[in-house]
Structures are given as C-alpha cells and as structure tokens.
Design a protein that fits this description.
The complex is a heterotrimer of chains A (347), B (249) and C (286). By secondary structure, chain A is mainly alpha-helical. Chain A is built from 15 helices and no strands. The chains are: A mainly alpha (347), B alpha/beta (249), C mainly alpha (286). The interface between A and B is large, with 42 and 53 residues.
C-alpha cells in the first residue's frame, strides 16, 4: 500500500474510534446505577426513551425517512411481550424481549413497502395510519389486550432465573441500561460501516445513489426493519419493567413526543436520541411540578419554538456545546481530541 | 460489435415527443459526442440510456444484452453509468467518503453493516488511486458543499469513474466551470483509459471537436446527422440548424 | 340499506368540506398542515359558544363560524405559516403538530374536556320518510350545505379569475409568479378560505363527529386519507374520495361492526398500493 493509501485507511479508522466524550458518556451512564440509587425508576424510563429515540434517529437522521408511527412498533412489541409473559408462552424475559423485537421488525418489514413508496406526505400517512390502525385493533380486541384499562396480570419472571424485578426498579434499570448499550453498539457498527455510509448518501441524494449502483430501496427497507426492531425492544422493555401495557403506547402523542426528543438532541450522530431523552425527562419532571395537566401545551410550544428558531441554528448550538464538552473532557484526560480532526498531512 | 446500441428509441411526454426513433450504435472505446441546439432532447437520451426514464418505445442494448427494463442501479452494475449536467453530489459527505462509497459498492462491500469503512485494504488502495487521478487530494476531507465548482465537477466524474464503468455517459461536463478550472477538467477527461467508451453531451464546440472521434447531431429529438468531426463541421444542414439559413441563395 | 347510503353520503360530504382546505393547501403550497383539524375544532367551539351560550340563531352561527375561522386562518398564515413554506417537510410537520398540541391543551383549559353539543333548532331534528328511506333532517341539511359549497367551489375554480389564478399557481408557482400573479395573496386568501371551510365543517359536524378538545388528533388521519386517496390537483378528486370513504365507513360499521373502523384504513392501504399518487390525481409539475 502506498503511503497515501495508508493515510486514507488510517483516516477512516480514526473517524470510527471512540472519542473521549463517548467513553465519558457511557462511564457516567453506568456509574449512575450507583450514583442515583433512588432515581432508578425514572432513569429506566429515560433509558427506554433513549433506545426508542435511537431507533428513530436511524431512519430519520441517517436515512431521511419522516415517520409519525414509530409507536406502532413500540406498542406492538409492548403488547406482545406482555401477552407472552401473562400467558406463560415465553417465560425467559430476555428471550421474550428478542422475540418481541423480531415481531416488531416483521411489521416494519411488511409496512416498509408502503412507507418507502411516494413522497413525504404518503410516508407520514402510512406510518401514522399503521400506528392508529394498531391502536384501533388493540382497542377492539379488549378481551385480549385489556382495552382502555390496559393489559393486566402481567408477571415477568426473573432474568436468567436469578435477577428478580423489584418495585424500586434496580434490576429493571440495570437490565434496560445493558440492553440500551448493546443496541447502541450494534447501531454504532452499522453507522460506521459501508452500509451506514450508503444510507447517508441516499438521504443526501437518492438519484445519485442509484446512479452509483446503490440499491436505494433495498437499503431503506433494511434500515427501516432494523429501526422497527430497536423500537420494539424499547416497547417490550417498558412492558417488562412496569408489568403493564396500555393503549397509549400506540398513540400519536407518543410518536410526536419522540420526534421532539430526537429534535432536541439533534439527528444524525446517534447520541441525539440519548441526550434528547435525558433533557426531555428533566423537563417533564420540572414542568410537571408547575402544570401537571397541561404538559402537552408546553410540548407543542417547544416544537413550535424549535422550528421557528430553526433546526440548523439549534444544531449549531448543539455542536458548539458538544465541542466545548469534548475539549473539557479531553483536557481532563490530557489527550488530543479525535472528533473534528484536521486532515492528515499530505506528503 | 457496438458496445451500446439503441433501436428506435422513442419517448413521449403526453403530446410531446422528446425523443423520436433514435437509433445509435456506439463502438467500444469510442469517444462519441452528442450535440444539438438547446431543447433537442440530448439529456432525455441520457436519461433513457441510464434508466432514469423508461422509453415509450424502442430498445437499448449494452454489450448485446437488452437492458431496456433494468433500473438505474442495475445498469451501473452492468458497467454503464453517467454524470449529471447539474452536479448531483452528496453535499454532506467528503470527496473521500463519496469515492469510498462508490468503490465499496462496486466491490460488493456496500451492504456490509458490520465492518468499518476503510478496513479492507483493497478498497482503500483503490480509493487513494482514484483520488490522485482526479486531483482531489488537497480537498478530500472537505465537505462537498464547500468545494470550488471545478473540484465538484471533477468529483462528479470521479464518482462515475469509481464505478469502473465500461460505458460512461457524460452530460455537459464543462458546464458552468470557470475558465481557470477548465484545463484540469479537460485534461482529466482526455486521460480516461482507452478501453472506456465515452458518450459526451457538450455545447462547447472546442471540447467536442478536440475530444470526439464521432459526432451525432440531435435536433427536435431526431438524429439529424452522424459522422466524423470533419464531416459534421462541413455539413451545410448542421450549419443551417445552428446558425440559421443563409438569406441569399 | 338506502338509509345507510344516505348517511354515508352525508358523512362523506362533511368530510369533504372539512378536508378540501387541506387538499388545496397541500397542492398549492406543498405545505403539510397537520393543524388543519384545529381550525375545524375552532369553528365547532365558536358555534357552541355563539349558539348555546349567546343565543345566536343556528342559521347565523354557521356562517359566523366560517368567518371567524377564516380570519383566524388568514392571521396564522400571514404571521406564522408564511415563514415555513420553503422549509423541509419535517419542519412543517413538527411545527403543525406543535400547534395541534397547543390548541388541544388550550381548548381543554378554556372549555373543559367534555364533549360539547350544539343546540340544533327544532326544525332540524327528526327525520323525513321519503319512499321508505329515513332521511335525518340534520343530515339533509349537511348534504344541502356541503353540496352547495362544492358546486360553488367548482364554479369559483373554473369560472372566476381568482380561480384560474389559483389553478395556475397550483400547477406551477414559478411560472405563475412570472405571469404577474400575486402568488402570496392567492396563498393567503386560499388558506383563509380553506380554514374557514374547515371551521364550518367543524360546526356542522359537531353533532355527527363529536366535538371535544381531542378532535384534531382524532380526525387528522381521516383528512389525510381523503387527501391521499383524492389527490391534490382538483376538487373532484377529494370529493369523490370523501364520498367513498364516508359510505365505506358508515356501511362498514353497520354491516361488520367489529371491523367497521378498519374499512377506512383498508381503503387507504389499497389505494397506496395500487396508485400511490391518489385515485383521481393528475401528475403535477413542481
């Protein structure tokens, strides 16, 4: 390999390396198990929301698909995992989790053919329509799903036969955090792979992507299915940690809140969903003290404000804050930052 | 045998006939130019050949194989691709990422979701070679959106080249390129390997006559004249179409 | 069975009046306005306040609902929406969802969360029995008003100068501007008119569809289905689509009660599979 080719190779390797910010993030995330023992219940909700937002980032941030129906996968897997636990069909929680994810992925695969045809409007329509339709189904078959009262009588067996779910949420939180981390690792691999690069290309210019032999449609179906899988895992986690599942997992509000979470954190760099989830939960906690009933108003207000201010400006602030934090952390770790590297020296 | 052929290629948009009964035969290794007045339908022909548009009638053959029904990405896999008159690039990616993407796709690594980009040395070697050939080394880490236009045009062609196409359809490669950057562009096109067949649409007659070994003239969607540059330059009908009729006999 | 047809047609025409503003806005400005249902809700509540609480006669309450909502629509358009025309669809979706949430919560706060009913005058209660078909008087009114509106719309579009300017702007904005058509004014007026129609539909429909603060969230999918199935390039398309959906929904709920609600979704999915651009749409240049 020539020196130039070696430079090219090392550039790509460096790009995908774990930055100090990422390492710090995850150390802190796992440390939170011991740092905030009383907050495990709300942290569990945050972790689930983070995974849910990660699933949306994969299709919105990386492939440019606008979806108002991620709740469909969340809810389907949520009900599935509840039902298999309630009727003792799959007793091991981890196995049930994976199966629920696969069920959601199957729905994603089947509906992808509708979603990926046509314009932004039809995508919106189809994703919203599927979620609402599932909501209608859940409502209709209330003898199975518990209808508006929710799915009752769900008992979740201990994980690996040893770790019992408790009312303080300790087991639940560690469980969710580990699942989140594993899913994140998978998403990270996808994003830094040639497949992930081709998604960004398709988002940027689908016409040109086809002109360089990228099977645009096939790639989008694949990422949509993967995203449905992650959303399903998040939904199943919710049911398993709360031993309950109700109709609001399939609602428009849930999909819309998810968009807000991702937009707050920023799309297209994987951490947006995670950061957004933390900020959203903070705000929810804080505003709920002020006006518990009209929380929806402030969500709407925030969406309007964010759009009027402009998402590019927000991304700009976002990046500035991130760059600042990276410099802080790097100086603390006394290493050169890997994010935002300058081009390697030539010759 | 002709490497690229069309037989009675026709495209209608409602009542408008954009391409009328075009029959072309392009030899392997040819440097074939397609010229004609504005609105003659040259880009439509390229769109038909590359698969962006489906013809109303007629057939297209690549290396003897009927490709009329194939999608654009399938035609690229068979070795024929194009550049665009208005740059169609990935504005958020860098030239390195863009070329890397095209090479990875071609080598069948495009669907790989597990390994990192750049972890295979065959791929990086080729990426480096293409970056150097197209003189993009000094800008390869910049976002495409901020590159100077001439560099973007080079990237446009590099991208098609990275697909190792045997037949390259160039749609007005010099369009919009400032004088200062033209030389680099033209030198690069002239240096394309001899076994690559090039079909070029251009308005700039200097480029056409210096580059092409065969010219087809398209007027109102029909093939008007075809021949060597010298023949076409002398043809009175071509002069009439481009410059208008002589008033006196 | 004919009663079902009658009810379905009434429901469909109501849907049309509600949704046609959305169709025109989408076709004209390429703007996805998910808050359209909020304007309908505003019209409904406006009529409730006027008729129930202030004793305004019903016949006056309807046109007032139209006016108030049209003014509201015009105001929103000039101050907020106009900044978002050039933005990507995602921004439009986020913005209008935000507006919906705000309007739902605000309405809940001001008017309470229970369902509201408009006091319908005596003359409109009950039904006629014509050739054995039971025709509800109120539904007859709906058909009459909506039918009249549809004809009026079609006439405006095809016979007036404003109509031809609107059609030109829908077909190709840039060229229309180049011809000296004040596209901004066309947008503003059309948006206001569409919102007004939605308001009128909300007022008329309070009896049949149910009026409560969650109205925009419940019904936006129906409006979107009308627009998707009917296309955005004509009045006829959404009209026929609405009738189809109205009859399908009513008939479905009657004949197959357990699955009735899915008829609408089934129609939407079939259309999207078979003709993604809509059943009645012509391809439009952008």
């Amino acid at each position: 390999m020539t020196q130039f080719a070696a430079d090219v190779s090392s550039y790509f390797k460096r790009r995908a390396r774990w930055s100090p910010f990422e390492i710090a993030f995850w150390i802190f995330a796992f440390a939170s198990i011991w740092l905030f023992p009383q907050k495990h219940l709300i942290l569990t909700e945050t972790a689930i929301l983070a995974l849910f937002a990660l699933s949306l980032d994969l299709i919105l941030g990386y492939a440019g698909i606008i979806s108002l129906g991620q709740a469909a996968f969340f809810g389907l897997a949520g009900y599935f995992s509840g039902l298999v636990a309630k009727y003792g069909l799959i007793t091991d929680p981890v196995l049930a989790l994976i199966c629920s994810g696969l069920v959601a992925a199957a729905l994603g695969f089947i509906t992808s053919f509708l979603v990926l045809r046509g314009s932004d409007l039809t995508r919106l329509m189809v994703t919203l329509g599927v979620a609402l339709m599932l909501g209608e189904v859940a409502n209709r078959f209330s003898s199975l799903t518990g209808g508006a009262d929710g799915l009752q009588g769900v008992t979740v067996a201990p994980i690996f036969g040893r770790f019992q779910f408790d009312i303080y949420g300790h087991t639940g939180y560690v469980y969710c955090l580990i699942v989140l981390f594993v899913c994140f690792l998978i998403a990270r691999r996808i994003v830094y792979s040639p497949f992930g690069l081709s998604l960004r290309a398709v988002k940027g210019n689908a016409l040109r992507s086809a002109a360089i032999a990228i099977p645009v449609y096939g790639r989008l179906v694949a990422i949509y299915t993967v995203s449905a899988f992650f959303a399903g895992i998040a939904g199943a986690l919710l049911t398993q940690t709360t031993a309950f599942c109700s109709l609001d997992v399939l609602s428009l509000e849930r999909s819309a809140d998810l968009l807000l979470v991702l937009i707050i954190g920023g799309t297209g760099y994987l951490y947006g969903g995670l950061i957004g989830a933390v900020i959203y939960k903070f705000m929810q906690d804080w505003i709920a003290i002020l006006t518990p009933q009209y929380w929806q108003f402030w969500i709407g207000f925030m969406l309007v404000l964010i759009v009027l201010v402009g998402r590019e400006r927000m991304t700009g602030w976002n990046e500035a804050v991130r760059a600042f934090l990276v410099r802080l952390v790097s100086r603390a770790m006394a290493r050169k930052p890997a994010l935002g590297d300058a081009a390697p020296d030539q010759r | 045998m002709a490497i690229l052929e069309t037989k009675n290629l026709t495209k209608r948009f409602g009542g408008i006939v954009a391409t009328a009964d075009v029959t072309l035969a392009i030899e392997k290794g040819a440097r074939h130019a397609l010229i004609g007045p504005n609105g003659a339908g040259k880009t439509t022909v390229i769109n038909l050949l590359s698969g962006v548009l489906k013809p109303t009638a007629g057939r297209i053959f690549l290396e003897g194989r009927d490709i009329t029904a194939l999608d654009p990405h399938q035609r690229v896999r068979l070795g024929m691709g194009r550049t665009f008159q208005i740059n169609q690039l990935f504005l958020d990616l860098t030239p390195l990422e863009t070329i890397g993407l095209a090479v990875a796709e071609r080598l069948g690594a495009g669907a790989d979701w597990w390994r990192q980009v750049g972890s295979r040395s065959a791929v990086t070697g080729e990426i480096a070679e293409i970056v150097e050939r197209f003189r993009l080394g000094d800008v390869m880490h910049e976002r495409t959106a901020i590159l100077p236009y001439g560099k973007q045009r080079l990237l446009e062609i590099a991208l098609a080249f990275a697909c190792r196409l045997r037949v390259l359809l160039l749609d007005e490669p010099a369009a919009g390129v400032p004088e200062a950057e033209r030389y680099e562009l033209l030198a690069t096109i002239a240096a394309l390997p001899a076994d690559v067949t090039v079909l070029l649409i251009e308005h700039d007659m200097d480029i056409v006559f210096s580059f092409a070994d065969r010219i087809s003239v398209l007027v109102n969607g029909t093939l008007f004249v075809e021949g060597t540059p010298a023949d076409v330059a002398r043809d009175p009908r071509v002069k009439a179409v481009y410059l208008g009729e002589e008033l006196d006999a | 069975m004919l009663t079902i047809l009658f009810d379905g047609v009434a429901y469909g025409m109501l849907l049309f009046v509600l949704a046609c503003g959305l169709s025109v806005t989408l076709g004209l400005m390429n703007f996805i306005n998910l808050a359209h249902g909020a304007f309908a809700m505003a019209g409904g509540y406006c009529t409730v306040v006027l008729v129930n609480r202030m004793g305004v006669p019903f016949a006056l309450g309807l046109p007032l609902a139209f006016l108030v909502t049209a003014l509201l629509g015009g105001l929103f358009e000039r101050t907020l929406y106009v900044h978002l025309y050039a933005r990507p669809h995602l921004d439009q979706v986020l913005f209008t969802i935000g507006l919906v949430f705000m309007s739902v919560a605000a309405t809940d706060y001001v008017m309470g969360s229970s369902q509201q009913f408009v006091q319908i005058p005596e003359a409109l209660q009950g039904q006629f029995n014509v050739f054995g078909i039971g025709m509800g008087k109120y539904r007859l009114l709906i058909i009459a008003v909506c039918g009249g509106l549809t004809l009026a719309l079609q006439l405006i579009l095809s016979k007036t100068r404003f109509g031809s300017r609107l059609r030109a702007a829908v077909d190709d904005q840039r060229v229309a501007r180049g011809l000296g058509i004040n596209v901004g004014a066309v947008f503003g007026l059309t948006f206001a008119f569409g919102s007004g129609l939605a308001g009128l539909g909300g007022a008329l429909g309070a009896e049949i569809l149910g009026l409560d603060p969650t109205f925009p969230l419940k019904y936006i999918i129906y409006f979107l289905i009308v627009v998707t199935v009917g296309g955005t390039s004509s009045i006829v398309g959404p009209f026929l689509a609405s009738i189809l959906l109205g009859v399908g929904d009513v008939a479905g709920k009657y004949y197959v009660p357990s699955l009735g609600a899915f008829v609408i979704y089934a129609i939407m999915i079939s259309v999207l599979i078979l003709r993604p651009q809509g059943l009645f749409a012509r391809p439009v240049s952008r």
